[in-house]
Amino acid sequence: MVAKDALHLYPSIGIDFCAVDAEAVPKLVAEAVDADLLIVGSSGTGALESFLLGSVVAGVLHKSPCPVVVVPVKVRDAVGRIAVGFDGSEASSRALRWAAAEVERRDAELIVIHAWHYPYRSTQGGSERVLGSVA
Questions:
Q1: Which of 34, 35, 72, 93 keeps 20 to 30 A from 135, CA to CA?
Q2: In this predicted model, what pLDDT tens digit does every residue of 20-47 receive, in sequence order?
Q3: How far apart are CA 57 and CA 62, in angstroms?
Q4: What domains lie within the chain, and their CATH numbers?
């Protein structure tokens, strides 16, 4: 039924199907070895459900040999922007290179995000620690 639905929805593209009796994460990761991108859908379950049931998304995020896209429950129309987190690390440099290549392919805009939390604020007497910050 899944294969028939996909062929009906997207008749103009070639689709290879793989249906096996196997755990999802190891099978997805194994199939992704020769893939450019692995795409999975988010189920929309909360943190408690994910903790109790396990999470395919978390598993493939940690083990995938290629970039992973997680499609949220509510998908909006494309806006021509790709956002990437960057902190100067090698991992974020790889993400930035991949995002820049995607921007070129899609003729999109690249948003590079470097965020940090500074746990102090300036006061008249100098600086003080902001409540709720971690040591």
A1: 93
A2: 889 999 999 999 999 999 998 887 666 6
A3: 9
A4: 1-72 (3.40.50.620), 76-116 (no CATH)
Write out the H or E segment, with its range, that includes residue 5.
Answer: helix 2-9
**Residue predicted with more confidence, 3 or 45:** 3
Buried-state track 16-30, b at ≥16 Cβ within 10 A, e below 16:
eeeeeeeeebeebbe
Q: Report CA-CA distances (Å) from 135 to 23, 43, 123, 128, 132.
A: 40, 34, 19, 13, 9
Give the pLDDT mean for 123-131.
68
Distance, CA of 35 to CA of 93 (rounded, Å): 21
Cα–Cα distance between 44 and 73 in angstroms, integer? Answer: 6
Does the pTM exceed 0.90?
A: no
